[in-house]
Design goal:
The complex is a heterodimer. Chain A is an alpha/beta fold. Chain A has 19 helices and 12 strands. Chain B is mainly α. Classes of the chains: A alpha/beta, B mainly alpha. The interface between A and B is medium-sized, with 34 and 29 residues.
């Protein structure tokens, strides 16, 4: 009996001792270049604060699935997580999975004086604001750019295309499948293609939604589908309908495409000599203009948030303040060329001097012309993207000659049904 | 003493208990839970808690063209894959049933596709099928044929996936059938030879009828598995291009983890469960008849 008591006593002291000794938080990151900046520095944060940080990293879609599963079953132990405001923001907000950060930001005891939340632009903050409260800290901004091979352009006597006509002309001229060089690649994989198709859509005068209804079956949108499909069918690599950013990036790195339109975040990988065979031949330019002007997307692609189900919210917020601090933003800009969401990093000449000049130029030009979304802004965005993406696949398969009008009409109907089911139709 | 007699008295219950508990927790409960959810409209994009709606979710799934397309595709994939695997498996089994040099080595190498990780297989085959630099098109070109787009072609994607399935699972069919062949008694063969029957007659009149229950078992096991194929399709095409390789399982996955319509996903999964159940029952009956 006495022995049992001693064992019990020891067990209690061990359990309490451990919890008193190490406070810990669980942080879920995406497999994103910014996470690569963060991870090596976490040991420093742990040493400074005495808080143990348990980090897990997932691919973007797996991250959404992991978070959704944990949150929906109300069994989550996640404290801080990376999140994509445009993809899952509405879903997470509606289900009450984000902690409201506004009270923390306004609390001088919790937000350090040098954090400077006003450093985030209004459009970036708008992307993470629901019902006048902030739920996510903006982290990375991305916009669509045109990557091109400087050597091939020089040989052919070409300048980076400024219009869609010039884009097609350049693609045609450089397309040489015999020598394994394709004119242009852009995403063709169902749902993934939608975001990179968006600039083409806007530049033809089309849009995803208008007044809370799908408008992807308008004549302008159909023109955009046809153009995108014809371009990739005629001057793209075979099998483009299975390609997302990873395949496009691999083709560019292997020197098999002359141009690639995708998000600005990949420049670092294209210029990395350990990953790219054309590292010193990469140019980056503003997206070419279409018949209705130039309106490439510029979005807050990633942010970081605190889970509402977290039991260590103050610790979580403290980590968030560190992980989104200006010091780390500068480091990410300089070391990895990541396009951070803070305004101040874009006005500091010392930082910009160490940043890719061409990309910085596109950033300056993007300011006044950008469209702040690259997909329909709605809760059921995953299914809507697949419906719209199916039209893109048809356009590519048929080179723009298939019955795009009917397919676009069906996709619009589907998107409207989804808006209706979420109570968003007409809003 | 008391304790051991308790065990002795309840051996019949105690020994299978861990397995029963495991099956109940890991298999019966999820099926039952899925069945329950299938009667709700649970949809995370609505922001509302799940509500019991009877058969409404069932009816709305039946109106989705993607559901019917996925259903047809699932059967197309299964029938295509299993029939070829059965035929090739039988041929392999007949070959392996004879004695020849290096037989054990062949048998062992047959096992390799079965023990490989499905995602690794998927990645390797994706590279084979790559239209520009892939092995498959290299073979076609060097034999003077036109290259194909394989899994990037809406019409070819299912046959291309079937080829992977055949590569991976024919060995299992062969091994099951080989076990069947090895278990056959020799007397009928001896008397057939005495009666002057030739090899083809022996195969059709003796081997095939005697081994048919085993073939049937192999077909059922493989069909059930093929209907549920998920990993290879997910790793290679994720249902694409467009929706052209979306089977019921992939559709259910998209519904639950990409669209967050858990009620609808449960209906699809329950439907698949019932299909498998009916198939197993029918074949069990058929097998009984064959054995009679």
């Amino acid at each position: 009996m006495k022995r049992r008591l001693i064992v019990l006593f020891m067990a209690i002291t061990v359990v309490f001792g451990v919890t008193a000794q190490t406070k810990s938080i669980r942080v879920l990151l995406a497999n994103h270049p910014y996470a690569e900046v963060l991870k090596p520095l976490i040991a420093e944060y742990e040493a400074k604060t005495g808080v143990k940080v348990n980090v897990e990293s997932y691919d973007e879609n797996q991250l959404t699935q992991k978070l959704t599963t944990e949150f929906a079953t109300k069994s989550s132990t996640v404290d801080v997580f990376m999140t994509r405001p445009l993809q899952e923001g509405k879903l997470f907000y509606r289900n009450g999975w984000y902690e409201n950060l506004t009270p923390y930001i306004n609390n001088a005891k919790k937000t350090p004086a040098n954090y400077n939340f006003a450093d985030y632009s209004k459009s970036a903050v708008d992307a993470v604001t629901y019902a006048k409260a902030v739920y996510t800290i903006p982290l990375v901004t991305e916009w669509q750019v045109l990557y091109y091979r400087t050597d091939l352009f020089k040989q052919a006597g070409l300048n980076p295309p400024a219009t869609f006509d010039e884009l097609i002309a350049a693609a045609k001229k450089l397309h040489n499948p015999e020598k394994n060089i394709y004119g242009i690649v852009s995403r063709g994989q169902r749902g993934a293609a939608v975001t990179q198709f968006s600039t083409y859509l806007y530049n033809f005068g089309g849009d995803f939604l208008k007044d809370g209804k799908a408008v992807i079956d308008t004549p302008e949108a159909i023109e955009a589908f046809k153009f995108y499909g014809k371009m990739l069918k005629e001057y793209g690599p075979p099998g483009v309908t299975n390609m997302s950013w990873a395949q496009g990036q691999a083709l560019f790195q292997a020197g098999q495409v002359a141009m690639w339109t995708d998000a600005s975040v990949f420049l670092g990988n294209l210029k990395d000599p350990t990953k790219s065979q054309v590292a010193d031949k990469v140019g980056v330019a503003l997206m070419p203009a279409g018949p209705k002007g130039n309106h490439p997307f510029i979005v807050v692609s990633w942010g970081m948030a605190v889970s509402k189900q977290s039991k260590n919210k103050d610790l979580a917020y403290d980590f968030l303040m560190w992980a989104t601090s200006k010091d780390l933003a500068i480091k990410a800009m300089i070391d990895k060329g990541i396009t951070m969401a803070r305004n101040s990093v874009w006005t500091d000449a010392n930082i910009l001097a160490k940043f890719d000049q061409q990309l910085a130029n596109t950033a300056v030009k993007m300011g006044p012309i950008g469209t702040p979304y690259d997909r329909p802004l709605m809760t059921a965005v995953g299914e809507a993207r697949d419906a719209i993406g199916d039209v893109i696949v048809l356009a590519i398969d048929t080179g723009g000659t298939g019955d795009i009008a009917t397919a676009a009409k069906n996709a619009a109907k589907k998107v409207n049904e989804l808006l209706d089911a979420a109570g968003e139709l007409g809003k | 003493m008391l304790e051991s007699s308790f065990v002795d008295r309840h051996v019949k219950v105690l020994f299978p208990l861990p397995a029963v508990v495991f099956v109940a927790l890991m298999m019966v409960f999820p099926v039952f839970y899925t069945f329950t959810i299938s009667f709700t409209n649970w949809n995370l994009t609505s922001g509302l808690p799940p509500r019991f709606v009877g058969f409404k979710t069932y009816l709305s799934i039946l109106q989705e063209p993607r559901f019917w397309a996925a259903l047809v595709r699932t059967f197309y994939f299964t029938a295509f894959a299993v029939s070829v695997e059965t035929l090739l498996g039988m041929i392999w089994a007949l070959i392996l049933n004879r004695e020849f040099l290096g037989k054990n080595l062949v048998k062992m190498s047959l096992l390799l596709p079965m023990v490989s990780t499905p995602v690794a297989i998927g990645i390797a085959w994706t590279l084979f099928y790559e239209p520009t630099i892939g092995l498959a098109n290299w073979v076609l070109r060097s034999t003077g044929l036109n290259p194909l787009k394989w899994i990037a072609d809406k019409q070819l994607v299912i046959p291309s996936l079937v080829i992977v399935d055949i590569w991976q699972w024919t060995p299992m069919m062969a091994l099951i059938m080989l076990a069947g062949l090895a278990g056959l008694s020799v007397e009928p063969y001896e008397s057939a030879k005495v009666d002057g029957a030739n090899g083809i007659q022996i195969f059709w009149r003796i081997t095939l009828p005697m081994v048919s229950p085993v073939i049937l078992t192999a077909v059922v096991l493989r069909s059930i598995d093929a209907l549920k194929t998920y990993d290879i399709i997910y790793a290679m095409t994720n249902g694409g291009p467009g929706f052209s390789s979306e089977t019921l399982n992939i559709y259910a996955y998209n519904l639950s983890f990409n669209y967050f319509r858990l009620g609808h996903a449960s209906v699809v999964l329950f439907f698949l469960f019932v299909v498998v159940l009916i198939l197993s029952y029918l074949v069990a009956r058929l097998r009984q008849k064959l054995e009679e």
